[in-house]
Amino acid sequence: MPTLLNQDGFKFFFYANEHEPQHIHIEHAGDFAKIELATLRVVNNYMKPKELKKALLIVEANQQHFVRAWNEYFN
């Protein structure tokens, strides 16, 4: 389970046996979400709205890094 970033109490990671489309998992204070990397579409969400908004901003700021890490890991 590669962790790509820890920031502001959020953990951004993917699992070793992931599937397409490219996405990132996020954990924060026991809550979690899953966001597609190409579209920033929220696939699953169990976070409070304020937490999800902050997580989305972090994903957007690190989108290229996450996509690059996905491609390096799975290709």
Question: Would you give an account of this structure?
Answer:
With 75 residues, this protein is α+β, with helices and mostly antiparallel strands. The protein has one domain. It is 33% helix and 33% strand. The protein contains two helices and five strands, in the order βββββαα. Strand 4 (31-36) and strand 5 form a beta hairpin.
SSE blueprint:
Elements: E1 3-7, E2 10-13, E3 23-28, E4 31-36, E5 42-45, H1 49-61, H2 63-74
Antiparallel strand pairs: 1-2, 2-3, 3-4, 4-5
In DSSP terms (H or I, runs of 4 or more residues), the helix count works out at 2
Evaluate the radius of gyration: 11 Å
Low-confidence stretches: none
Classify the helix fraction into a percent range.
25-40%
User: Main beta sheet, described?
Assistant: 5 strands, antiparallel
Structural class: alpha+beta
- Silhouette: globular
Number of spatially distinct domains: 1
Strand proportion, as a percent range, falls in 25-35%
Mean pLDDT: 96
Secondary-structure element order, as H and E? EEEEEHH
| CA distance, first residue to last residue | 16 Å
Count of β-strands: 5
Strands of the largest sheet, in order across it?
Answer: 1-2-3-4-5
Offer a concise description of the structure.
The protein has 2 helices and 5 strands.
List keywords for this structure.
33% strand, 75 residues, five-stranded antiparallel β-sheet, alpha+beta, single chain, 2 helices
